[in-house]
Each structure stands twice: as structure tokens, then as C-alpha cells.
Amino acid sequence: MGIQSGVIGFGVMMSALALVSGDKLVQPLVVKGPLALKMHGNVYTPRSAKSKKEVTILLGPQQAENIEQQMSFETHIVLLFQWAGSGQDTLVSTVDDAVVTFHYTRGRTRDLRQHLQAFAVDRQMAWEVTESTKTGL
Length: 137
Hints:
Layout: H1 2-20, E1 26-29, E2 47-49, H2 52-59, H3 61-70, E3 76-86, E4 90-96, E5 99-105, E6 112-122, E7 126-131
């Protein structure tokens, strides 16, 4: 059991280091705590931030510090998706060639929730948002 725990821990550590070094093309970011600004948005038109200063304007200084620890602004940009929808709404990304596709799937419940998701995307990648009818994509 000790070897399995060590291998799993090593994998988690290496995946975190890969993003900080800029090796991953797209990676979800953890956004903690309250936001500096009340953002209203549409899942199809995310806001982008190319620097820590732009993230500070959108999310506040604490969030900017948190995001800077998770990624490198030299190699990646931040895409911020904010929308209101079902609590079961999902947004996942896939990479194909040089394009990142964000697949938005509407939930089936009628419980209106605010959603905020952030992704680090390689500066060289193009991106698009599509609506998916598949469940669990």
C-alpha cells in the first residue's frame, strides 16, 4: 500500500510541476474565495487575461496570486468562464491539433446556479466553445 501511495503522490506532484513549467496546453485552475468584481457573462464568450495585472482587475489580488502559483503568464493565458445555469451544467476541454475546444453541456435540473471556471491555455493554441448534447463528455 505504501508504494501505491508514493506513486500516486509522485504523479500528482509531477502534474502540478508540469503546469508551472508551462508544459501543459490546457489546464483547469482553482479559483478560491469571493471575487473582486461581480461578473456577468455568457459561457460562450469567456474573458481572457494575458497578465497578472489583468487577472487582478477581474478577480482581485488574492485570486491573481493564487492563479500565478498554478501557471506561468509567459506561456499561458487565463480564460474565465462565468455563467448562470443548472447546477448540473458542465464545461470540459479537449485538445485536437492546435485547437482547444470547450464543451458546454446544459444540466437537466432547474436549480439556477452561478458558475465560474478558469483555465490556463497555451498562448499558441486557438480555442472555441461548443454546446454538447453528450452526457459526461
